[in-house]
Amino acid sequence: MSFFKNLRSLLTAGRGIVVGLTDAEPGDDPISLFESWFESARKSGLFLPEAMTLSTATSDGKPSSRMVLLKSVEKAGFTFYTNYDSRKASDLDSNPHAALLFHWPILQRQVRIEGRIERISREESGEYFHSRSKGSQIGAWASKQSSELDQRKTLENQVREFEAKFAGEEIPLPDNWGGYRVIPERIEFWQGRPFRLHDRLVFERKASEWSTHRLYP
């Protein structure tokens, strides 16, 4: 076994590879389990453990995926931010369902989330927007996300224009920028195990409660 495989085994031992996932009990909360796994991913030293694949589809079912960053998780769902004029936003506004995928390879773990989408309040979006760096705030104004760009210099010129426009003052939240929340209806926890006999534990929302079952690997 190579050094890196030995290192990965050392880091993951005791985190699921050996003992696996225990069966869920009635009333167990998948959001709490996610938070525990996310904390383990954060402590593992992974770069951007909050990175997740967001998959959307148009109203006629054409899919697309991209990486975005999870900004908060709470009982209500999983929140990320984007330009409301982007391709992903167009998909979500016409087909308000999405799938998220977290992959933490050093822990041999994945979490798959499926659910419906809602825009968060402008107040929530504004609070997060003003916590970002000034450069990122300017970037939100300068970028016409997903639109065709003739050359990078055009974008750089727009950045300078907005830097001058907002010099010395608070940068307002753009009308076309804010957050979405994925309200989970199905969450699957995947834990790598020896001989590819992986653990897969699924939670599905039934009204206000969660049911759970296992899947074959």
Topology:
Blueprint (H helix, E strand, L loop, with lengths): L2 H10 L17 H14 L7 E7 L5 E7 L2 E3 L2 E7 L3 H8 L2 E8 L4 E11 L2 H8 L4 H9 L9 H14 L11 E15 L7 E8 L2 E6 L3
Antiparallel strand pairs: 1-2, 1-5, 3-4, 4-7, 5-6, 6-7, 7-8, 8-9
CATH topology of one domain: Pnp Oxidase, Chain A
Largest sheet: 9 strands, antiparallel
Low-confidence region ranges: none
Structure classification: alpha+beta
Coarse shape: elongated
Tell me roughly what share of residues is in helical segments. 25-40%
CA distance, first residue to last residue: 24 Å
Mean pLDDT reading: 92
Strand tally: 9
In what range is the share of β-strand residues? Answer: 25-35%
Q: Give the second-level CATH assignment, the architecture of one domain.
A: Roll
Number of helices: 6
CATH class descriptor name of one domain: Mainly Beta
Radius of gyration, in Å, reads 20 Å
Query: What is the N-to-C succession of helices and strands?
Result: HHEEEEHEEHHHEEE
CATH H level of one domain: which superfamily? Answer: Electron Transport, Fmn-binding Protein, Chain A
